[in-house]
Design goal:
The protein is mainly alpha-helical. Helix content is 26%, strand content 6%. A two-stranded antiparallel ribbon has the order 1-2. Helix 2 packs across helix 4.
Length: 139
């Protein structure tokens, strides 16, 4: 959002906010009057918030020629934590404790991957859509 000098991102799975669902469903409409504009203020707390511009330590000139990257990080902070919840049997079988003696979901996920590389032979994303919304800077 160039006007307010920040960038936000959300991750929705599996529930998509109603406004965003309507915006996606109507995005291809030939009649502009039928299109629903996305309203991020109705989407809940963003997954990430980055202040940009003067006084933030992150100058706006960093944000040009950008690319979206899909990363199959099976055991990162997000996916590793989900592994323990969504793959309970494997999480119990490959349980790795951290230095404090507590189960570490990321290390446990890594132990599973290292022991079962064949489980990832057909790793892929199934993506229904990627939508990037940009507000123009008013002059």
């Amino acid at each position: 959002d160039p006007e307010n000098r920040y960038m936000k991102s959300w991750v929705f799975s599996p529930d998509i906010p109603v406004n965003l669902r309507h915006a996606i469903d109507t995005a291809g409409s030939k009649d502009e009057a039928e299109r629903v504009l996305p309203d991020p203020s109705s989407w809940g707390l963003p997954y990430a918030y980055f202040a940009i511009g003067e006084g933030t330590g992150c100058s706006a000139d960093h944000f040009k020629n950008m690319r979206l990257v899909f990363n199959l990080a099976f055991c990162g902070n997000v996916s590793g934590n989900r592994f323990a919840r969504e793959c309970k049997a494997f999480a119990e079988k490959f349980d790795v404790k951290n230095d404090g003696g507590y189960s570490d979901p990321v290390l446990t996920c890594n132990a599973y991957i290292e022991s079962n590389p064949e489980a990832l032979e057909e790793a892929y994303w199934k993506i229904k859509g990627v939508y990037v919304y940009e507000r123009e800077l008013e002059k």
